[in-house]
Design goal:
The complex is a heterodimer.
Chain A lengths: L4 E3 L2 E4 L5 E6 L6 E7 L5 E8 L2 E4 L8 E5 L5 E5 L8 E8 L5 E3 L3 E5 L1
Parallel strand pairs in A: 2-11
Antiparallel strand pairs in A: 1-3, 3-8, 4-5, 4-9, 5-6, 7-8, 9-10, 9-11
Chain B lengths: L3 E4 L2 E5 L4 E7 L6 E6 L5 E7 L5 E4 L2 E6 L4 E6 L8 E8 L8 E3 L3 E6 L1
Parallel strand pairs in B: 2-11
Antiparallel strand pairs in B: 1-3, 3-8, 4-5, 4-9, 6-7, 7-8, 9-10, 9-11
């Protein structure tokens, strides 16, 4: 597609439920990144994919968080047993060979 | 661990005046990026600086990189209201085409008449 597409744009869930967030990167971009942005804060790195493998998943906050990527395209970030502190905007980005990241509009997650 | 610091965190600017904001980082890198974020929106790429001494200009904004000082500056000429936003710098941890970017906390600029 023309840009990075993320869905859902907004998700409200109850504490303890699982959520899946989807990212569709720019066609041909081999690298894909997930960041988290809490309200009024900077960007917190979660994980990045090169192709379908994840060389760096050091930012995943706990084992409740996981991500996968298939077909060197779509990626899914899964949060199990959500907690209130998981509330944030989850941003996906894909990159060119200059390393410049192009961001999607984000998925706003609210855990009640 | 790479640390990226931006200062000031908030800057109130007067229309028509010039300002400079700073981004410094703790580990050797030759790739630095500036992004803009409007409230409730995602990040928009402004500048990609890929070597020591790199200077890029777009409209009223000019960014430069000094890799020896581990410092980038973003200079604003004759500020206008449309420049009100949060500006993030980000530094690549590894040299190479695809590597993790570490972001600063962002600087929120507000332009007043």
């Amino acid at each position: 597609g023309a840009g990075v597409s993320q869905s859902p744009s907004n998700k409200v869930t109850e504490k303890g439920k699982d959520v899946e967030l989807r990212c569709d990167p720019i066609s041909g971009h081999t690298a894909l990144y997930w960041y988290r942005q809490r309200l009024g804060q900077g960007l917190e790195f979660l994980i990045y994919f090169q192709g379908n493998s994840a060389p760096d998943k050091s930012g995943l906050p706990s084992d409740r968080f996981s991500a996968e990527r298939t077909g060197e395209s779509v990626s899914t970030l899964t949060i199990q047993r959500t907690q209130q502190e998981d509330s944030a905007v989850y941003l996906c980005a894909s990159s060119t060979n200059t390393g410049e990241l192009f961001f999607g509009e984000g998925s706003r997650l609210t855990v009640l | 661990e790479l640390k990226v610091e931006q200062n000031p965190l908030f800057l109130s600017m007067q229309e028509g005046k010039n300002y400079t904001i700073y981004c410094n980082y703790s580990t050797t890198s030759d790739r630095l990026y500036w992004y803009r974020q409007d409230p409730g929106k995602s990040l928009e790429s402004l500048f990609v600086l890929l070597s020591n001494g790199a200077v890029k200009q777009e409209g009223r904004l000019m960014a430069s990189l000094d890799t020896k000082a581990r410092l980038s500056t973003l200079h604003i000429t004759a500020a206008v209201h449309d420049l009100s936003a949060t500006y993030f710098c980000a530094v690549a941890l590894l040299t190479g085409a695809n590597s993790k970017l570490t972001f600063g906390k962002g600087i929120t600029l507000s332009v007043r008449p």
